[in-house]
Amino acid sequence: EVQLVESGGGLVQPGGSLRLACAASGFPFGKFAMGWVRQAPGNGLEWVALVSRLGRHDYADFAQGRFIISRDNVEKRVYLLMNDLLIEDTAVYYCVAGGIHWGQGTQVTVSS
């Protein structure tokens, strides 16, 4: 059974940081590109960042310079370090494997 379990969300003040984690199981993790997608209240899905099988990173414009995606192929985990958080970063963040497997999401709320 494929499982992607996110953790690390929560409430943070503007300018703060959070590190999201995603634990993967049930599929060949090292063969999949891994990414993060978010959905803000009332909005559609928005791609955040991607790390390829070989570790190449790509970021949405809003994430460039603030967010860092990384992966650990031994532990089968992917991370998203989010710095300088803005109120508009408030969303449910989903871990995605290969564009086809999704986690249940973790809530990130940026508020003073």
Write the layout of secondary structure elements.
Elements: E1 3-7, E2 10-12, E3 18-25, E4 34-39, E5 45-51, E6 57-59, E7 67-72, E8 77-82, E9 91-97, E10 101-102, E11 106-110
Parallel strand pairs: 2-11
Antiparallel strand pairs: 1-3, 3-8, 4-5, 4-9, 5-6, 7-8, 9-10, 9-11
What does this structure look like?
With 112 residues, this protein is an all-beta fold. The chain is built from no helices and 11 strands. Strands 2, 4, 5, 6, 9, 10 and 11 form a 7-stranded mixed beta sheet that branches. A 4-stranded antiparallel beta sheet has the order 1-3-8-7, with no helix packed on it. β5 (45-51) and β6 (57-59) form a beta hairpin.
Largest sheet: 7 strands, mixed
Q: Tally the beta strands.
A: 11
Number of discrete helical segments: 0
Helix content: under 10%
Mean of residue pLDDT?
97
Based on secondary structure, the structural category is mainly beta
Distance between the termini: 40 Å
Strand content: over 45%
Could you tell me the radius of gyration in angstroms?
13 Å
Basic shape: globular
Low-confidence parts: none
Give helix and strand order, one letter per element, not per position: EEEEEEEEEEE
